[in-house]
Amino acid sequence: QVQLVESGGGLVQAGGSQRLSCAASGRTFSSYIMGWFRQAPGNEREFVAGISRSGGGIYYADSVKGRFTISRDNAKNTVYLQMNYLKPEDTAVYYCAASASNGLIRNVRQSYDYNYWGQGTQVTVSS
Prior knowledge:
Blueprint (H helix, E strand, L loop, with lengths): L1 E6 L2 E4 L4 E9 L6 E7 L6 E6 L6 E3 L7 E6 L4 E6 L8 E8 L16 E2 L3 E6 L1
């Protein structure tokens, strides 16, 4: 069992930056692929970014490529999402998730690929 707790959400102006953190406890953090998803009101949950166990493999959704950066610190059991050049359409509840999949990181981007989820943190980007 893995417990995930996100933090760092809030209100930010368009063009600004924000960093989300996700702290994990429980079983070995480094044994999981980690991902970030988001869900805006009325929309389905969508993949944002994923990172391999070692951090050497990363994959982004096209909508955030070049603006968002995912990273992890296995010593601190934490995964991060640095968000720059934020847009109003980035407004959503952001979730971190852990996957036990052995697939390539670019293929591990569906909700059903992930075994554990955090409670989510709200990010609101004002125009």
